[in-house]
Amino acid sequence: MRQALPAPDSPAAIRAALDRIGLTRADVYDAFLGRLDEVGAVVDFLARVAPDARDVLDVGCGTGRLLPRLAERFPGRVEGLEPDADYADAARARGGVVRGVGLEALDDADRWDLLVLANGPLVYLTDADARARALRRAWAALRPGGALVVDAPNFLRFLRFYQAPAPQTATVRGVTCQRAPGHAWDFHDALWVHQDHLTLTAPDGTTARYRERFTFAMLPAPGLRAEVRAAGFADLQTFTGWHAVAPGRHEGVRLLLVARRPR
Q1: What are the C-alpha distances in Å from 216 to residues 82, 92, 125?
Q2: What value does the mean pLDDT take over residues 181-210?
Q3: Which domain holds residue 70?
Q4: Is 28 a member of any domain?
Q5: What number is the average pLDDT over the span 126-137?
Q6: CATH number for the domain harbouring residue 71
Q7: pLDDT tens track for 90-99
Q8: Do 133 and 244 sit in the same domain of this protein?
Q9: What is Dmax (Cα atoms) for the chain?
Q10: Total domain count, the chain
Q11: Which pLDDT score, from 0 to 100, does residue 3 have?
Q12: Which helix (H) or strand (E) holds 258?
């Protein structure tokens, strides 16, 4: 590890801290990481690369930010997969149909025209064999000719131009939420560790604190392309971001890839 991080809190301790304040993990996630401002660009991009798609599965849908707009844009069935129970509940509260599992548990066959992996769900699978199995499941779940869209952080660029993240503050239902992110990395196992230290202060002065940790595979662009091809996908195209209207090289902060199950 480049630097040591304090030990994260247990899920029970995090839930107890949030209960004292009257918020959920989904509330905090949406306040800092919901990226609601990019929803329109994401859905427009999906419509450009899969204009004939009807049935869409949002894999790792989080708190459901895309699901309502996907349902508006695509005429068939729209569902989400989300293994985090707190986030899945929030997505359902937005009206989404959500299964509480991840891509590695998907067992659909020839059911979807478009699978969307936005905001990095693939790199939450830190084991290469687990990613390979998950991508094969994605291939099987698509109809022939269906499209897979994968979005992930470009960790190599983050390392090259690394800057320590700045603290952030947001207000959720009167609660002041202060977020102090920190990073570490493990070059031996190619892991990126992100940890948030949250301080939540209610209007009456009640304060709760917790640390939550997330670990990701530092999957480089060539590795991502190789894993997608190895799962049987073809016609790979890379894009510079959600606003892109034509393919481009993977040189920015995100790795965005579109591939298809052969007909």
Answers
A1: 17, 26, 7
A2: 96
A3: 33-154+219-260
A4: no
A5: 98
A6: 3.40.50.150
A7: 999 999 999 9
A8: yes
A9: 61
A10: 2
A11: 59
A12: strand 254-260
